[in-house]
């Protein structure tokens, strides 16, 4: 992890297109601004973790759905006595 010290109104560049600016420092809170291309998603970590959990749940559901569909297909294509 890279640790940098910045003052209010100073910035950090990530690559050529992402700028992190320190807008204000109020006690223990720091207000930051992030300027990035629209194609780069930017989330607070707690929101990002929620999105990942939802994606994992959707992937699990689609795997279960696929397994059920395969089982139904196998039952339908097996010769009946």
Please outline the helices and strands.
Blueprint: E1 11-14, E2 18-26, E3 29-35, H1 45-77
Antiparallel strand pairs: 1-2, 2-3
Q: Briefly, what is this?
A:
Helices cover 41% and strands 25% of the residues. By secondary structure, the chain is α+β, with helices and mostly antiparallel strands. The chain has two domains: 1-40, no CATH class; 43-81.
Description of the molecule:
The chain is α+β, with helices and mostly antiparallel strands and 81 residues long. It folds into two domains: 40 residues, no CATH class; 39 residues. It is built from one helix and three strands. It has a three-stranded antiparallel sheet with strand order 1-2-3, with no helix packed on it. The longest helix has 33 residues. The mean pLDDT is 89.
Q: Which sequence of strands runs across the widest sheet? A: 1-2-3
Whole-angstrom Rg: 24 Å
Q: What order do the helices and strands follow? A: EEEH
Strand content: 15-25%
Enumerate the spans where pLDDT stays under 50 for 5 or more consecutive residues: none
Describe the sheet with the most strands: 3 strands, antiparallel
What is the number of domains?
Answer: 2
Kindly report the average pLDDT value: 89
Q: What is the total tally of β strands?
A: 3
Number of helices: 1
Share of helix, binned: 40-55%
Structural classification: alpha+beta
Backbone shape: rod-shaped
Distance between the termini: 65 Å
């Amino acid at each position: 992890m890279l640790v940098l010290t910045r003052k209010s109104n100073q910035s950090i560049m990530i690559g050529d297109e992402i700028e992190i600016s320190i807008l204000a420092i109020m006690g223990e809170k720091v207000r930051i601004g992030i300027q990035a291309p629209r194609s780069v998603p930017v989330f607070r970590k707690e929101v990002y973790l929620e999105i990942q959990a939802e994606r994992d749940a959707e992937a699990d559901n689609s795997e279960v759905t696929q397994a059920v569909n395969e089982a139904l297909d196998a039952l339908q294509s097996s010769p009946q006595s």
